[in-house]
Automatic annotation (TrEMBL):
It comes from the Bacteria. The keyword Transmembrane applies. Coiled coil: none annotated. The chain crosses the membrane at residues 20-45, 65-89, 145-168, 174-193, 265-283. InterPro entries: AAA+_ATPase, ABC1_TM_dom, ABC1_TM_sf, ABC_transporter-like_ATP-bd, ABC_transporter-like_CS, P-loop_NTPase, Type_1_exporter. It is a multi-pass membrane protein. PROSITE patterns: ABC_TM1F, ABC_TRANSPORTER_1, ABC_TRANSPORTER_2. This is ATP-binding cassette subfamily C protein. GO terms for molecular function: ABC-type transporter activity; ATP binding; ATP hydrolysis activity.
Length: 570
């Protein structure tokens, strides 16, 4: 039950307390309506206005206080008024709950996205993507359900409490009977409640596992299909799907069982109570009818507490996983200092730099200088650590030892945000969006003019093919750019990096997918771009060695100057 409170009040006290007060008022008004039925039953039963029960006294007192006569018309009017008021408060409460649930669902997603984009890169790359997509979709959805159910559970709980208070006024034995009935109804479903909690955990776990495998498989499906191994994909999912099926089954079973057990149990307890009341306590028909009505409402309220509590039990795991994930991502927030930024382009120097990933040494005591306004090429076999160098220069990874300086500023004292705005980075595996050429190059940045996009495309040697496409800049390139060739996609990626007029351009295997002639043309255009910008080309292609002002080779963790600088071409 503690979870119910913690989840519901996690978004702040004030609004949630207001919701509970509104719904509590609705419950109290309803009780007034039920209490007013009490004397009416007596009047209709031909006993006249009865005064043998404490509730009659209360009603007489209340009507006198507001100066209304005690007639059946007035009593019926009170019941009608109470019903309308209770409905109005109840509806207002539901609207508030709905709004608070919607705010919770969007709020938690926005917080996640915000935390994610601010996280350290080294934390980010170590996480499976499915972890975040699952959090954003199913977990956020289920956490919203848990949040809503927690609210409804508390509402039903306050309602039950109000009705119980009324039961005290009816009579002590009656109150004790109601407590006994509520307890038995609650305990009877304990087994199913535990089942629901377990099913909730299982669902969450296997859903994530399934998402992991599906994401992995679908991103690799081309190779699998080409080798006719795609039919095996299903096997890796089958286990998770089966476990998911079992958890869902347990969830459905526990829900239906709880509902099914409730009704006959309530009827038997009620019949027993009526028998005892009639035979041993000498209760009259009126009190019995009124009590039955009240008991039914108490049972309904308890049933609602139970159903919503079960929903919380099923989905709370998602709520807590989300909270933990959010806390974890926030703890890994990248510390961006507002240091300084030297005039660019400036020499970039790696001095005595070592770097390791967790459990893997990539380079030791590397020395390397990228002269300002020149083209530096880094070659080396795959896996040697070329991309790692680029990532360190971009401030995505910090060296484990040694220093990187831009001009004379150590990289950890740079205004990192400003530094990165001066970078054009073309990663090894550029992701293009299912959008127009224009938006793929500008990345939706409204400050970038169409003319700048065109210039970048020209510089990336892409304008030739773009201008021939139907719609030109507004041509939509398909999912991950599937309507373009590999070379065309890569040229778009280069244009995307060039459009911000970067002072340092990093090309990570940028021409690997292009034919020799086009690659040479791009290398030549790159040479033309030096002077006002520094270029770092990471590649295994010889043509970039020819185009470079300085060449370094990285191999077995060592960086060596591979060839003397060619004639300065800036
Ligand atoms: N995030 C990472 N965690 C652990 N090891 C990594 C990570 N990224 C790369 N590596 C390893 O570090 C080495 C250097 O990687 P990388 O710089 O990408 O090589 P290159 O670009 O020269 O092919 C490789 O052996 C690779 O397996
Ligand atoms: Mg690489």
């Amino acid at each position: 039950m503690r979870d119910v409170f913690r989840i519901f009040f996690s978004t702040g006290w004030r609004q949630q307390v207001l919701i509970l007060i509104v719904l509590l008022t609705s419950g109290i008004v309803e009780v007034v309506g039920i209490a007013t039925l009490w004397p009416i039953i007596g009047i209709i039963g031909g006993e006249g206005m009865p005064n043998d029960h404490i509730i009659d006294d209360y009603i007489r007192w209340a009507l006198e206080a507001v100066g209304l006569p005690l007639t059946i018309e007035v009593l019926l009017g009170v019941i009608l008024g109470a019903a309308i008021l209770s409905f109005a408060f109840g509806t207002a409460g539901s609207v508030f709950v709905g709004r608070s649930v919607a705010n919770f669902g969007t709020g938690i997603r926005l917080q996640l996205i915000d935390a994610l984009v601010r996280a350290r890169w080294s934390y980010f790359v170590a996480q499976p993507v499915a972890r975040f997509t699952a959090a954003m979709n199913s977990d956020a959805e289920r956490a919203s359900v848990a949040f809503k159910s927690a609210g409804m559970c508390l509402v039903a709980l306050t309602q039950a409490a109000v009705l119980m208070v009324m039961a005290i006024f009816v009579s002590w034995p009656f109150f004790l009977g109601a407590v006994a009935i509520a307890t038995v109804l609650w305990l009877a479903v304990g087994r199913y409640m535990r089942m629901a909690k377990k099913a909730g955990r299982g669902k969450s776990k296997h859903n994530l596992a399934l998402l992991h495998s599906v994401t992995d498989a679908l991103t690799n499906v081309k190779a699998l299909k080409a080798m006719n191994r795609h039919t095996f994909i299903g096997h890796t999912f089958a286990v998770h799907i089966d476990r998911l099926r079992r958890a869902t089954q347990a969830e459905t079973y526990s829900t239906s069982a709880m509902r099914a057990i409730q009704e006959p149990l309530f009827i038997s307890l009620l019949l027993g109570g009526l028998y005892i009341g009639h035979t041993f306590l000498g209760m009259d028909l009126r009190v019995m009818l009124g009590s039955t009505l009240l008991l039914k409402r108490i049972a309904d309220a308890i049933g609602s507490v139970r159903a919503n509590y079960q929903r919380v039990a099923l989905d709370r795991i998602s709520y807590w996983q989300l909270q933990n994930l959010l806390a974890e991502i926030r703890a890994n927030r990248e510390a961006l200092i507002s240091g300084n930024l030297p005039p660019l382009p400036a020499d970039i120097t790696l001095a005595n730099v070592s770097f390791s990933y967790p459990g893997k040494q990539v380079m030791q005591h590397a020395n390397l200088t990228m002269d300002a306004g020149r083209l530096t090429t880094v070659i080396g076999p795959s896996g040697a650590g070329k991309t790692t160098i680029a990532d360190m220069v971009a401030g995505l990874h910090a060296p484990t030892e040694g220093t990187i300086t831009v001009g004379s500023t150590p990289i950890d004292q740079l205004d990192m945000a400003a530094w990165r705005r001066q970078l054009g980075y073309i990663p090894q595996d550029s992701i293009l969006f299912n959008d127009t050429i224009l938006n793929n190059v500008s990345l939706g940045d409204p400050r970038i003019q169409e003319s700048e996009v065109r210039e970048a495309l020209v510089a990336a040697d892409a304008w030739g093919f773009v201008s021939k496409l139907p719609g030109g800049l507004n041509f939509s390139i398909g999912v991950r750019g599937s309507l373009l060739s590999g070379g065309q996609r890569q040229r778009l990626a280069i244009a995307r990096a060039l459009v911000g007029q970067p002072r340092l351009l990093i090309l990570d295997e940028a021409t690997s997918a292009l034919d020799q002639k086009t690659a040479q043309e791009i290398a030549k255009s790159a040479q033309a771009l030096t002077g006002s910008r520094t270029i770092l080309a990471i590649t295994h292609q010889a043509l970039w060695v020819d185009a470079a002002d300085a060449v370094y080779e990285i191999r077995d963790g060592k960086v060596t100057m591979a060839a003397p600088a060619l004639s300065g071409s800036a």
